[in-house]
Design a protein that fits this description.
By secondary structure, this protein is α+β, with helices and mostly antiparallel strands. It contains six helices and 21 strands. The protein has two domains: about 1-225, Zn peptidases (Aminopeptidase); about 245-320, OB fold (Dihydrolipoamide Acetyltransferase, E2P). The strands form four sheets. A ten-stranded mixed β-sheet has the order 3-4-6-5-7-11-9-10-12-21. The structure holds zinc ion (ZN). Zinc ion (ZN) binds near residues 52, 53, 56 and 139.
């Protein structure tokens, strides 16, 4: 029997349940939605998590579909799933945990008697990450527009870097960001404790993004194949790329932005990226690429003030 919270899965079965997580402001108990997938054969334990940022819904969509499609009788190993980590943020679709205004992915491994976010981080860290051999922490570019990519955050000098990069490539989104992340990220802290964790970033949108959700489902099953939890080879793009740095590009003038170079576009230094016009028209400026690279992320809304963020170019792109 595989137990996770109240989920109890017999061999070859899947069960969903709740993991008790504390009390809300009105004193009622709250619990995270969890699932346990108990494979018929022996194999590694994979931890899957979504909703660390409460406005990032694509990962929630991915896990719902993975649980619908996975056949535990054909699986070697076990899967532990937390469908929504940021319980309070999810209720109001806010990025941070509104109880302590904190981004949960900066406080891992958390603390059982700490702040609200630290307690949630510690709960899943102790109940799931420490039981796992590998983990995927599903994110997206919040509500800005972003390409589908996977982040390796342990740093290239880390002893688990090659394993993390292998997971990221197997996930198979074509683009990987390979750069050491900030303190408190699960994809940093897990590898320090011997658990390879990568951070798939599945697009960015307000609400659902079907294309990114389906890519994420494909990626999760790819990783299970890479880890020999399922039969077959992962289905990956023939060529994948990794970026090591970003350059953020801001508007020089205030007004409305029209992108000339959209997501996934390869640009050369000096190439036009976007135009800014006044609210009632009339061209004000054309902003050009400060470096060569791939347009990785853009703002969602068209209006900008002078000095406001418009897009990011991933530079130092190389084939992997
Ligand atoms: Zn996120």
């Amino acid at each position: 029997m595989l137990e996770f919270g109240s989920a109890e899965a017999s061999t070859g079965e899947v069960d969903v349940g709740r993991l008790q997580a504390g009390e809300t402001r009105d004193g009622s108990a709250f619990a995270l939605p969890v699932a346990a997938v108990n494979g018929a054969g022996d194999g590694p334990t994979l931890y899957l998590q979504a909703g660390s940022d409460g406005d990032e819904l694509n990962g929630v969509g991915v896990l719902r579909r993975v649980l619908d499609r996975v056949d535990a009788s054909e699986l070697d190993g076990q899967v532990l799933v937390v469908g929504v980590l940021n319980f309070h943020g999810f209720q109001s679709a806010s990025h941070h945990n509104p109880v302590d205004d904190t981004k949960i992915n900066r406080v891992f491994p958390g603390s059982r008697d700490g702040s609200s976010s630290e307690r949630l981080a510690a709960l899943v860290y102790e109940e799931a990450v420490e039981r796992a051999d590998y983990a995927l922490d599903l994110h997206q570019g919040s509500t800005s527009r972003m390409i589908d990519e996977v982040r390796v955050r342990c740093g290239t000098a880390h002893e688990l870097h090659s394993t993390c990069l292998r997971l990221a490539c197997a996930f198979g989104t074509e683009f990987v960001l390979d750069r050491k992340g900030p303190d408190g990220q699960l994809a940093r802290v897990g590898p320090d404790d011997g658990v390879p964790v990568v951070d798939p970033e599945l697009g960015g949108s307000v609400g659902w993004d079907e294309g990114s959700i389906e890519k994420g489902v494909h990626g999760v099953f790819n990783v299970m194949k890479e880890l020999d939890m399922l039969d077959g080879e992962p289905d990956m793009p023939k060529q994948q790329y990794r970026a090591k740095a970003f350059e953020n590009v801001h508007s020089g003038r205030g007004g409305l932005v029209d992108l000339e170079a959209d997501l996934y576009r390869e640009v050369d230094e000096g190439e036009p990226l976007f135009d800014v016009t006044g609210v009632l028209g009339r061209h004000k400026e054309t902003v050009k690429a400060p470096c060569s690279g791939v347009v990785w992320r853009t703002r969602r809304l068209p209006m900008v003030a002078s000095g406001e963020y418009v897009l990011s170019i991933a530079s130092e792109i190389e084939e992997i």
